[in-house]
Task: inverse folding
């Protein structure tokens, strides 16, 4: 008997721990559902419950258990009129509260609301327990659990709910910081794209076209969402290091001397130096830095070979070469699409990893070069 009880406790602890590990890839909704149902499971007095989120000035239920969905979803509470007392300065000070709701004062709620309470069963007396979700002194959500069997919530249940509210607050905080960082990075990226295009007339639009082909190729190779996103950004910025190369060399109409070519070869290193200062760009830097490495080891700057070259960089490289071949250069006219594809096929196993060449050619054939980006 004791064994069963112990087993149950272990299972509950395991579920609780599972809720809060490996959360980084969860969407906000998935995380809230996971946390809400886990709290509901652990708190024995909970019979029904709901989680409200602040949306456009109202707290609205987004997850619930036990209540009639069609009725619950009609509930909304004005931000400035609701739950004001529970706001606190930081996550550590979040508290949980329990209350016995004996009567709903008729003056406080509209007739419509009272009808809703009646339908939901919350016009009758019940015990309720709730805890706010706080970020930057603002209440972004509230988790509520209810009991209709005259059973008050224990101190342990209050502690558990407080813990969950703090964890959800933490999740929101991290998520908002991440969103802010992504937005800041996007602004930096767009500023860098403008800088590239001002510096080098021949590569105007080149970054965007390489981004387009690389993203299509990464999708065709079934890469993950995060990998596609990093490849896309790296492709857009792969030549940003050309800012550090003189315009005379970049736009020279004649053949480059060996010394000038050595200077051009510095641009992936400059790209790395510029991008490595942006937070969370490790993978983007890695892909962009390697975009002139060849499969046979004869590329630059490091002469990496085969699998040493990250797949993201190989994707950008083949797209870069295709775009360069089909574009006018200072020293030559664009090759036709057919000729460019033939040249790419000839370089399979030399410049390019043979395992991506067929898929890449398929992507280039299917997608017309987008001349709007010229
Ligand atoms: Fe380049
Ligand atoms: Fe390029």
Result:
């Amino acid at each position: 008997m004791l064994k069963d009880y112990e087993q149950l406790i272990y299972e509950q602890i395991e579920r609780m721990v599972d809720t809060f590990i490996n959360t980084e890839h969860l969407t906000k909704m998935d995380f809230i559902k996971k946390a809400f149902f886990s709290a509901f499971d652990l708190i024995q007095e909970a019979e029904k419950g709901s989680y409200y989120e602040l949306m456009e000035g109202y707290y609205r239920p987004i997850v619930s258990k036990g209540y009639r969905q069609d009725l619950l979803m009609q509930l909304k509470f004005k931000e400035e009129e609701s739950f004001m007392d529970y706001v606190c300065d930081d996550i550590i000070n979040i508290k949980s509260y329990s209350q016995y709701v004996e009567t709903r004062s008729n003056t406080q709620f509209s007739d419509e609301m009272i009808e809703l309470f009646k339908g939901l069963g919350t016009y009758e007396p019940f015990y309720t327990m709730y805890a706010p979700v706080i970020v930057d002194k603002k209440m972004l959500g509230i988790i509520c659990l209810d009991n209709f069997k005259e059973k008050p919530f224990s101190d342990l249940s209050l502690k558990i709910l407080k813990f969950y509210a703090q964890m959800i607050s933490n999740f929101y905080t991290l998520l908002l910081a991440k969103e802010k960082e992504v937005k800041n990075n996007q602004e930096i990226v767009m500023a860098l794209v403008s800088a590239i295009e001002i510096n080098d007339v021949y590569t105007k639009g080149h970054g965007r076209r390489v981004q387009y082909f690389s993203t299509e190729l990464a999708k065709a190779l079934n890469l993950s969402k995060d990998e596609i996103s990093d490849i896309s950004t790296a492709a857009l910025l792969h030549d940003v290091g050309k800012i550090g190369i003189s315009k005379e060399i970049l736009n020279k109409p004649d053949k480059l001397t060996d010394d000038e070519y050595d200077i051009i070869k510095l641009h992936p290193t400059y790209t790395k130096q510029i991008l490595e200062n942006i937070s969370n760009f490790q993978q983007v830097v890695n892909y962009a830095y390697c975009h002139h490495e060849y499969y046979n080891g004869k590329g630059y700057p490091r002469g990496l070979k085969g699998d040493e070259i990250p797949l993201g960089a190989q994707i950008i490289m083949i797209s870069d070469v295709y775009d360069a071949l089909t574009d006018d250069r200072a020293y030559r006219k664009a090759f036709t699409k057919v000729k460019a594809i033939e040249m790419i096929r000839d370089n399979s196993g030399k410049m390019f990893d043979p395992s991506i060449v067929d898929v890449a050619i398929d992507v280039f054939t299917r997608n017309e070069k987008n001349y709007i980006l010229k």
Q: What stands out?
A: The longest helix spans residues 155-199. The beta strands are 48-55, 58-65, 77-78, 97-101, 126-135, 138-147. The chain is about 50% helix and 10% strand.
